[in-house]
Design goal:
Layout: H1 2-10, H2 12-33, H3 41-47, H4 51-59, H5 63-66, H6 75-90, H7 92-98, H8 102-132, H9 142-169, H10 174-184, H11 187-196, H12 201-223, E1 225-232, E2 235-237, E3 240-242, E4 246-252, H13 259-277, H14 281-289, E5 293-294, E6 297-298, H15 300-321, H16 324-333, E7 336-337, H17 345-380, H18 388-410
Antiparallel strand pairs: 1-4, 1-7, 2-3, 5-6
Amino acid sequence: MFQAIVTAFKITEIRTKILFTIGILAVYSFGATLTIPGVDPTVITEQVETGVMGMMDLFSGGALGRFAVFSLGIMPYITATIIMQLLQVVIPKLEALSKQGEVGRRKINQIARYMTAGLALAQSIAMVFFFRGFGAIPVFNVMTVTLIVLTLTAGTTIIMWLGELINIHGIGNGISLIIFASIVSRLPGQFITMVRVRVNPIVVFLFILISVGVIMAIIMIQQGERRIPVQYAKRVVGRKVFGGQSTYIPLKVNQSGVMPIIFAISVLLFPATIAQFVPHAGIQSFADALSPTVEGAINPIYAITYTLLIIFFAYFYTAITFNPLDTADNLRKYGGFIPGTRPGSHTSDFLTSVLNRITLPGAVFLAIVALLPEILISYMALPIRFGGTSIIIAVGVSLDTMRQLESQLTMRDYEGFLK
């Protein structure tokens, strides 16, 4: 692995991409520490220690606790992406755009960007009035509110732009890497907190041991796949013979990666956002019912809802990213077939059946790993907020980035990370 890193830095193009990605993440870290003028961050820090606001602070890299420029994080963009993917199912015009290839995807992404700006504007207004009730904004007037709202909205659009810059000029998925940086940036502070409060060393050792085991299990599931054998018939074109080879279709156990986790968190945070808009007791009670913790212990309603959302979005995202009907048509077009299965609709039904069977255990595993460390943290009374959700996202993004770097090295006949 270390040899592969050295090799990657010897290649000018890859070295430039890696350094560019690191530079963009450094810019993001700077924006996450730059406090907006006119607010009292000490008051806000007390409000984001636990509950839904604590989860929002975790995924903003601590920016919300400081009421920094990037306090909203990337959640408005993720919410907009979810809405656009749901609308593609119910709006025929958007579904047609999604099938037009790169041109259609660009138009859909452009709509998602405008929607992100609108959601960020609405959420920033709600956040201003929410924190006003705690005295976090000493001077509350039109100028101050306008400055804070525009700064928060601009911060989200800048994060979205930074993520796209990584996609174009860097290594890995930009949005995922920004979320990864937000999570990992909290680790030093979490360990320092454990040292300060003098947690029992045996408890810390057990937690680290469990975390290592969870990470190993995540890697095994993320790398696990069901290989569907494919045989290509021989074709004679002129004097040349094509085909006659065997290959396979790799169907991953966790086909959707970390996206179900991110989507589920966005949905869970949505009621809290609405509660900031509408100060109604019923809406606030509903938002509190979905809070991750209740009196220091994990909330069972939150755990059940979180599990169901993860399973739903695992199937939903898998259905969007992998189309068995298109795969079956492509196999038939190029003379390929699955042994023991007739081409066409029978192949599509077979792939759908296999995909449904392997997606369920993958989704259940995601839910278990997302909740188990958080339950253990509550049971062990550890003063940290780095749970299973953070571990899954961090490990998943790391594997995806390593895989992309592996492909870059493989193209140049170098030994990669995963060999």
